[in-house]
Specification:
Elements lengths: L4 E7 L5 H18 L7 E4 L1 H4 L6 H10 L1 E8 L1 H5 L1 H17 L10 E5 L9 H4 L5 E2 L17 H21 L30
Parallel strand pairs: 1-2, 1-3, 3-4, 4-5
Helix pairs in contact: 1-7
Length: 202
């Protein structure tokens, strides 16, 4: 395995400005603060920037995940509703299990960033993480995350975790480990049963 990316961005695609602004603002901030820690690697893999037409998308995504140190999950209620994002989440869990045989795992490789809280509370896959950061107060009026004191401490926590695993993976990844062998898992089941919201109630 050659590390090519500091982090894989996993998110549900949005059509409108709020979701797209958040993804762009967060990715810019992470790139800014990760860059000094890397050798020649790219800071992030974001599918909208790197997957071209005609690509075997499953193969490209699987390889990119395997070549990434960690994964940032931009959590919204939409995230858990989509099969492809649940599949990416499950894939990083597989990679974490594999890498835990290479070095003592000090923390999870999946870093949830809460963009929007679920009205029924966070699913256990997110809430039980050893670390998640709550950016749900982000709005269209929020200033640049790179210099916003309300968000910088949590951005630093994200960066510190990625850098820690980067150094460990550089040291302990087996020579000749081949990311071409990694494949995405089947789509996992829904994370939780959703409440019945139909009316009238009896």
């Amino acid at each position: 395995m050659a590390i090519r990316y500091g982090c894989f961005f996993s998110y549900a695609h949005g059509r409108y400005e709020l979701m797209n602004k958040f993804k762009s603002a967060l990715s810019d901030a992470i790139r800014c603060y990760l860059e000094p820690h890397f050798d020649t690697e790219d800071e992030l893999f974001i599918d909208t920037e790197r997957l071209g037409g005609g690509d075997d998308i499953d193969r490209r995504v699987a390889r990119a995940m395997c070549e990434s140190v960690a994964m940032i999950v931009i959590y919204t209620p939409k995230y858990e509703a989509h099969p492809y994002t649940r599949r990416e989440f499950a894939a990083m869990q597989m990679l974490e299990q594999q890498r835990s045989s290479w070095y003592p795992m000090p923390s999870h490789l999946t870093i949830p960033v809460i963009m929007t809280m679920h009205p029924g509370k966070l699913p256990p896959q997110i809430a039980n993480s050893t670390m998640y950061v709550d950016f749900s107060h982000f709005t269209m009026a929020t200033t640049d995350l790179k210099s916003n004191p309300d968000f910088l401490p949590d951005i630093q926590k994200i960066v510190d975790r990625i850098v820690m695993h980067y150094q460990l993976q550089k040291k302990f990844t087996p020579v000749g480990h081949d990311c071409n062998q990694f494949v995405l898992p089947d789509v996992p089941p829904v994370w939780r049963d959703l409440p019945d919201l139909t009316f009238p109630k009896k």
